[in-house]
């Protein structure tokens, strides 16, 4: 895959390509044993109606877990307001530094 963006360097673009799920239903993989999303994380909100470079950024302000303790839904704040989204439609870009240390 060729990258020719003056904004991002090659390692950043390769990381984004690896993290963003494919829109093909045959290629979607369920992550097991991965890190739960948490309050303060920065995510991209997947939007099937537009290209990936137009997906909005958001900050997680609340998480909703199931009985197993796994986060299934999150409340996010975007520049347009507060939304509720499934974690399947969120791509983690940056973890909250205070939580990871």
Written overview of the protein:
With 101 residues, this protein is of the alpha+beta class. It has a domain at 32-100: SH3 type barrels (Roll), CATH 2.30.30. The chain is 14% helix and 32% strand. The protein has 2 helices and 5 strands; from the N terminus they run H-E-E-E-E-E-H. The chain has helices at residues 10-19, 97-100, and strands at residues 42-45, 57-65, 71-78, 81-86, 90-94. The chain has a 5-stranded antiparallel beta sheet with strand order 4-3-2-1-5, with no helix packed on it. The termini are far apart.
Under the CATH scheme, which class of the domain at 32-100?
Answer: Mainly Beta
CATH architecture of the domain at 32-100: Roll
Order of helices and strands: HEEEEEH
Radius of gyration: 14 Å
Largest sheet: 5 strands, antiparallel
Poorly predicted regions are 24-32
Span between termini: 34 Å
- How many DSSP-defined strands? 5
Structural class: alpha+beta
Shape: globular
Percent of residues in β-strands: 25-35%
CATH topology of the domain at 32-100: SH3 type barrels
Strand order of the largest sheet: 4-3-2-1-5
Helix content: 10-25%
Number of helices: 2
Mean pLDDT: 77
């Amino acid at each position: 895959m060729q990258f020719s963006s003056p904004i991002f360097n090659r390692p950043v673009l390769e990381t984004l390509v690896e993290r963003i799920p494919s829109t093909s239903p045959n290629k979607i993989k369920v992550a097991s044993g991965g890190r739960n999303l948490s309050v303060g994380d920065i995510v991209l909100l997947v939007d099937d109606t537009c290209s990936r470079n137009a997906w909005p950024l958001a900050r997680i302000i609340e998480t909703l877990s199931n009985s197993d303790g796994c986060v299934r839904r999150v409340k996010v704040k975007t520049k347009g307001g507060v939304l509720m989204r499934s974690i399947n439609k969120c791509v983690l870009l940056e973890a909250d530094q205070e939580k990871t240390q």
